[in-house]
Amino acid sequence: MRPDLSVNLAGLELKNPVMTASGTFGYGLEFDPFFDIGQLGAIVVKGLSLKPKAGNPPPRIVETPAGMLNAIGLQNVGVDVFLNEKMPELREKKAPVIVNFFGNTEEEYVALAEKLDGVDGIAALEANISCPNVKAGGIAFGTDASVASTLIGKIRKSTSLPLIVKLSPNVTDIKVMARAVEEAGADILSMINTLTGMSIDVRTRRSNLANMTGGLSGPAIRPVAVRMVWEAAKSVNIPIIGIGGIVSAEDALEFILAGASAVQIGTASFISPTAAIDIVKGLERFLADEGISRLSDMIGALEG
Amino acid sequence: MDYTQGRGRILANVEVAPDHYRMEIEAPFVPERALPGQFVMVKVTDGLAPVLRRPFGIYTINEARGSFEMIYRVVGEGTRLLSEMADGVDIDVLGPLGNGFNLDLAGDQPLIVAGGVGVPPLFSLAQGLIGKGKKPVVIIGGRTADDLLSLDAFRAIGIEPLLATEDGSSGYKGYVTAIMEERLDDGKIPSAVYSCGPKLMLRRVGEIAMSRGIPCELSLEAIMACGFGVCLGCVVKTCSSDGSSEHDFSRVCCEGPVFDAKEIIWDEA
Ligand SMILES: Cc1cc2nc3c(=O)[nH]c(=O)nc-3n(C[C@H](O)[C@H](O)[C@H](O)COP(=O)(O)OP(=O)(O)OC[C@H]3O[C@@H](n4cnc5c(N)ncnc54)[C@H](O)[C@@H]3O)c2cc1C
Ligand SMILES: Cc1cc2nc3c(=O)[nH]c(=O)nc-3n(C[C@H](O)[C@H](O)[C@H](O)COP(=O)(O)O)c2cc1C
Hints:
The structure holds two protein chains of two kinds.
Chain A: E1 7-9, E2 12-14, E3 18-20, E4 43-48, E5 61-64, E6 67-70, H1 79-92, E7 97-101, H2 106-116, E8 122-128, E9 132-133, E10 139-140, H3 145-158, E11 163-166, H4 174-183, E12 188-191, E13 195-197, E14 200-201, E15 206-207, E16 214-217, H5 222-235, E17 240-243, H6 249-258, E18 262-265, H7 268-271, H8 275-290
Parallel strand pairs in A: 3-18, 4-7, 7-8, 8-11, 11-12, 12-17, 17-18
Antiparallel strand pairs in A: 1-2, 5-6, 6-16, 9-10, 13-16, 14-15
Chain B: E1 4-17, E2 20-26, E3 39-42, E4 54-57, E5 60-62, E6 67-73, H1 77-83, E7 90-97, E8 111-115, H2 119-131, E9 137-142, H3 151-156, E10 162-165, E11 172-173, H4 176-185, E12 193-196, H5 199-211, E13 216-219, E14 235-239, E15 247-251, E16 258-260
Parallel strand pairs in B: 8-9, 8-12, 9-10, 10-11, 12-13
Antiparallel strand pairs in B: 1-2, 1-7, 2-6, 3-4, 3-7, 5-6, 13-16, 14-15
Helix pairs in contact in B: 4-5
């Protein structure tokens, strides 16, 4: 018998728990030559802002041990181009679309949430709160519990779609952030975004990134991400989507055992464009081999 | 979007000059569709060090053999691992990627200016131009005579490359751009210029061509993670396409690697 991979995240029904991570899957259509993206649990598109954003000057990426640093600077086509030019084609792919979005002020987040509400084919919204809050001197919304809480409260009132809040790992206590965001009305948490890092070329004595610092992703961050998911899962009652360095089905299961109900695949899609769908197949194989009939039975099933 | 990811098989991996290797890979999906100037991303290990694929220009496109060749210089861990791969071994290939050169740029007397590991993609370009009945002139440069790649390959298709080395160990002592300028001053005006190689060389080649109003295409390199347009890591600054901003960022992997010299905005330094 085929194992049942379906999961239900606060009403968001997915045929399997594997999604793509924002910023690593473009607008989805770039993966058409590789596989049918409709087979994934959901696809999360590149973070959108109200207006198109040019992003940071190059160099924007550098490889690091088992990972990479990026300082793309949230380059994106803007919400209008996305809705007019990408969404019609995406709808035909039959994959639930989750739209990741960000702003530099509370008003921008709210305007985006309103604009995306009720658009056919959009299954949920994911708020990226790791962005600088311009009015508060550029400190990220996601690093201060009360700032994050106010922001999420306002977004919550602006949309009827399931609201996923994507947590930044660059905080002292992830449990505090997770609880604050839950209380403010988040339906689901996704975690983690990239860890801030830096890499220096010792010959030129320059940072390898024009932006000086960047976000670390890839297998290097997985143990940190699993620990954070585990801590958050014990602190909140809403479902969690685990993200960070997943390249195989076993990696995904670490997050699920730690308490995640679903996962997102990021950097792995750069290494192997079929990574996300390969992980779906890998989960099915793992469950079949272990005689487990439902993946949802493994959520939070960590022993000890 | 006409690329694939698949298993290829290494047919040859031979040292052609100190620290330079030529690798032939059987992977029919590449030669079936490849255009001169396109590139591939290969995985150099099944493990995580290094974690990302590495990009290489396509040197020859051999449809009959279902293979293509690339030439690479060992500069770090990824290319070192590549140089140790044995014949007959499988290798994960993603491609063909990028836009490729425009073979139909004005006239039938194009000039090709190549430096270092910029030579390989220009060889398939030369073949393509000859196939169109054009008569390319080729200038190849390197630091020393050892760095002058693929001279015999050019000779085999009837081109005698003009040579420049920084140390004078072969051909003209100095840069390829000096030969280029001298020819222009002698009234030998090419109908178009194509170039690939070190950044400073590309910039100079572009400036010379533009100052004389000659159409010019440059093939750029950038550090890239995915190679097919989603990571947005490999951008270069280009002129705004619609005038709505001071500049655009264009992806070397998709809008490039070949750009019209007029599009590129070079850094100040
Ligand atoms: C479109 C394209 C086509 C290319 N074609 C060829 C080719 O035909 N032959 C060839 O020898 N090389 C080519 N390169 C460069 C080649 O990809 C790099 O030399 C290689 O990735 C280095 O890997 P490494 O692990 O050995 O070195 P690393 O340890 O990663 O780096 C060693 C040095 O190489 C530089 N480097 C790393 N990646 C790149 C990159 N993508 N582009 C430029 N410099 C880089 C680093 O900054 C560092 O200084 C091409 C690059 C691009 C983007
Ligand atoms: C190049 C790149 C761009 C990213 N862009 C975004 C983005 O626009 N919005 C966002 O919320 N996260 C973004 N992320 C973070 C990823 O979605 C993910 O949280 C992170 O990379 C960790 O997962 P991974 O280790 O599987 O890549 C980006 C990551 C990378 C590598």
